[in-house]
Specification:
It is a single chain. This protein is α+β, with helices and mostly antiparallel strands. It is 19% helix and 33% strand. The chain contains 1 helix and 5 strands; from the N terminus they run E-E-E-E-E-H. The chain has one helix at 44-55; strands at residues 5-6, 10-11, 17-22, 27-32, 39-43.
Length: 63
Amino acid sequence: MPDITWDEPFCGEAANCFRLGIDTDGNAYVAVNGAEDHYITDSRDALRRMILDIKGGKADHLL
């Protein structure tokens, strides 16, 4: 497992919590809080783009 530095959990309604993390190679990670050994990973730029797109409303149709 890579050496991942995890941020504090982000929790929504009904305690749906996830965590964001980074490693020293510039990769970004997303995991469910408490299950950090099962994560998805991509570049930090890809994670940044995903967050900006979500904030911009491109995922609103999923709600």
